[in-house]
Design brief:
By secondary structure, the protein is an alpha/beta fold. The chain contains 15 helices and 15 strands.
């Protein structure tokens, strides 16, 4: 059968011996192969500085599959078939001549190649120069990039400008793995496949939105990177602003890459800048401290004093018709009480309660979209408590749960990278981030960091294992609202 322009015959994984490849990329590719979704002739070429041959790399990959695949999913025969696809080329990104080794494994005309670049931003230009030297920048070569794409707007433009010289926008796939998560995609289905929600999805009916990305871990092995980045740039600039854009965007005309990304970038450009004069009312930063149980502080874990924030809470406003005066509260941090990623949407109170004179109390409806650790959609509604009501009528808030694991028990839960890798191989950019989105995100984040510096905002200490500094509670409580912690 003749190949189509979208066919990929080689997938090149830079950083193939690293943690991301072991935990996510190789298990995801195995799962796609298991289900017969990879092109029959697809070669997977791993590359890194480590000196390995094909067999050593396949042994390394097998160990990664055993360690990181869901229990019961590893099958030796299927693994052997998958491992036959794997090849390895040792390569030093800083040496352009090394890239010529890749050309011996891809098609002679370099047609149908996808490159997955997961490396430090400082090496992006060297990698692109090497790929260009090897002729791997033809119009049938795609480039996928892991974050971080810069540390501010200027560096992001520099990186994206260098990429664009070799790979135009239609062949550049910027990865935000949150966009591959089922619950995140279900947010689109919830809004745009149901007539129940979209008519209410606006300032007339929604009181406020909270987006939380809470981690229980500290630095782990990322100390040097994280200390030069901080929570605002590590989490808010990419994952959290993408979630905000999906919540807030206007209905696209079609489930199409251009339509969806056009609507997201409109939201990002509508974010109200946070200036130095208002930053202390709209932002809180924190850094985790030690606890009596012996948990170390951030500086202890890092090994030196630092003023890098490990926590940030923000009050964001979107200046458009749909979201006028609806605050979006964002918070993220390390060493918090629970591991949790969720979108919490509180609707406005009913304008009049006909049950009040009978002693019944109502509370606003809430929609909770849990992304991790469990994927769940919960709608909290008012219902009557059973009884004869001789002492007055009672109402209670009750949950309507859609646990995705139960609702779709007949479907295997996918790793987010499975979808993203398959979309890369098939050339579908819908769930990847466009350059103008990245630049709109950095524009807003750079403004916040400049306001922090001008206002002299410093991280407040908070106990490890808590929900963050008390100043974050004050930020939302000033508006008569409270953070949603837990179910």
């Amino acid at each position: 059968m003749a190949k189509t322009p979208n066919d990929i015959s080689s997938l090149v994984l830079f950083g193939a011996t690293g943690d991301l490849a072991a935990r996510m990329l190789l298990p995801s590719l195995y799962a796609l192969d298991f289900d017969g979704l990879l092109p029959a002739d697809l070669k997977i070429i791993g590359t890194a500085r480590t000196e390995l041959d094909d067999e050593a790399f396949r042994k390394h990959a097998r160990a990664a599959l055993v360690d990181h695949l869901p229990q019961g999913f590893f099958e030796a025969d299927r693994a052997d078939r998958f491992l036959e696809r794997l090849h390895y080329v040792p390569l030093d990104i800083t040496r352009p001549a090394d890239f010529e080794k890749l050309t011996t494994l891809v098609d002679d005309d370099h047609a149908g190649v996808a490159i997955y670049l997961s490396t430090a931003p400082s090496l992006f230009k060297a990698a692109i120069d090497g790929l260009e030297h090897a002729g791997l920048t033809s119009n049938k070569v795609r480039m996928a990039l892991e974050k971080p794409l810069g540390t501010d707007l200027a560096s992001s433009r520099e990186i994206n400008g260098a990429i664009a010289l070799a790979y135009p926008e239609e062949r550049t796939f910027r990865i935000d793995h949150y966009l591959g998560k089922e619950t995140v995609q279900n947010l689109l289905a919830l809004r745009f496949a149901n007539s129940l929600f979209e008519p209410l999805w606006n300032a007339t009916h929604i009181d406020h939105v909270q987006i939380t990305v809470a981690e229980t871990v500290g630095l782990e092995q990322r100390g040097d990177y994280y200390d030069g980045t901080g929570a605002l740039r590590d989490m808010v600039q990419n994952h959290m602003l993408q979630l905000l854009a999906l919540v807030a965007m206007e209905p696209p005309a079609d489930f199409d890459a251009t339509e969806i990304r056009d609507e997201k970038v409109k939201v990002l450009r509508s974010l109200r800048p946070i200036a130095a004069a208002t930053v202390k009312h709209n932002c809180v930063t924190g850094q985790y401290a030690g606890t009596q149980s012996g948990s170390g502080s951030y500086s202890d874990d890092l090994g030196r004093p630092s003023e890098t924030e490990t926590y940030v809470a923000l009050k964001a406003q979107i200046d458009n018709w749909r979201w006028a005066n609806v605050p979006f509260y964002l918070r993220t941090g390390k060493r918090l009480a629970e591991r949790e990623t969720e979108i919490f949407i509180q609707f406005k109170r009913i304008p009049h309660s006909m049950f009040a004179h009978r002693g019944a109390r109502t509370v606003p409806n809430k929609l909770v979209i849990s992304i991790q650790p469990d994927e769940n959609i919960r709608l909290l509604v008012m219902a009557k408590t059973p009884g004869l009501d001789r002492d007055g009528l009672r109402l209670r808030e009750v949950p309507l749960d859609v646990g995705l694991a139960n609702a779709f028990a007949d479907h295997r839960r996918r790793i987010a990278y499975e979808r993203l890798l398959l979309d890369l191989i098939e050339g579908n950019p819908t769930l990847f981030v466009r350059r103008d989105e990245v630049e709109a995100q950095w524009t807003w984040i750079d403004g916040i960091r400049a306001a922090w510096a001008e206002a002299g905002l410093k991280p407040a200490p908070y106990p490890a294992g808590s929900w963050g500094p008390s100043e974050a509670d004050q930020l939302i409580e000033r508006d008569g609202r409270h953070w949603h912690n837990g179910p």
